[in-house]
From TrEMBL:
Residue ranges of every copy of the Protein-glutamine gamma-glutamyltransferase-like C-terminal domain listed in the record: 136-206
Transmembrane segments: 65-88
InterPro entries attached to this UniProt entry: TgpA-like_C (IPR025403)
Highest rank taxon of the organism: Bacteria
Protein name: DUF4129 domain-containing protein
UniProtKB keywords: Membrane, Transmembrane, Transmembrane helix
One Pfam assignment: DUF4129
Length: 223
């Protein structure tokens, strides 16, 4: 039996020829384990970035300038990041900060101040004084929010807004409170509005459009 096994081993070629060796290699490399071990595109990109950054800080510069070169490269990268933030980051942040809140005195309304003024004028032309008065007060509030003068966060009441706006425009404080009362009467107490109430509010809105704030800071609406 041992002699038979020895003859079989002797008959098996230990060193394959060229074609057989290539075939064995192809079969071996076709194993999925080899494909899984290959680096992904993400791995290659990350490695390229790391090699680039490593090259910046390990550049062999004659005369002992390697450390200085690395420091200059670091400062340049930091400067580019700061410039990018100043050019692209801060303007977007300012636009987000100054954008008016979509909710206005308890109701969702994303219209601009000009859109609300046109809607108020249309309602007034049709004799719908309740609607016209409410829309005009909303236009007044939205206009001050768009200018960054008085904020109108969700939950703000008309009287809280009137007090905040009155601090910015002291000469109009009394008229603002009167406009807030008229808004409340129509909106919540269901008292009918009138042409006089609307015209008073329209004139107040136009007055504030042309007025300059007495305080330079943005005023938030309190309770």
């Amino acid at each position: 039996m041992i002699a038979v096994v020895a003859r079989m081993l002797a008959a098996t070629p230990v060193t394959p020829d060229g074609d057989e060796a290539r075939e064995w290699a192809e079969q071996e490399l076709s194993d999925p384990a080899y494909a899984e071990a290959q680096p992904t595109a993400f791995d290659r990109i990350a490695r390229a970035i790391l090699d680039f950054l490593g090259g910046l800080f390990s550049t062999d510069v004659s005369g002992g300038w390697g450390s200085a070169f690395a420091l200059i490269a670091a400062i340049a990268i930091a400067a580019l990041i700061i410039v990018a933030l100043l050019v692209w980051g801060l303007p977007r942040a300012r636009r987000r900060a100054s954008a008016p809140v979509a909710t206005l005195f308890g109701d969702a309304d994303e219209r601009s101040a000009d859109d609300l003024r046109r809607a108020a004028a249309s309602a007034a032309d049709a004799g719908r004084w309740d609607e016209a008065l409410i829309l005009r007060f909303r236009a007044l509030a939205r206009g001050l929010a768009e200018r960054g003068v008085v904020s109108t966060p969700p939950g703000a009441t008309v009287h809280a807004f009137a007090r905040a706006a009155g601090r910015v425009f002291p000469s109009a404080a009394t008229d603002l409170e009167a406009g807030a009362s008229a808004f409340d009467d129509v909106r919540y107490l269901r008292r009918p509005g009138s042409r006089d109430d609307y015209e008073h509010l329209r004139r107040l809105d136009e007055q504030l459009i042309a007025a300059r704030p007495a305080t330079p800071v943005r005023t938030g609406v309190g309770g």
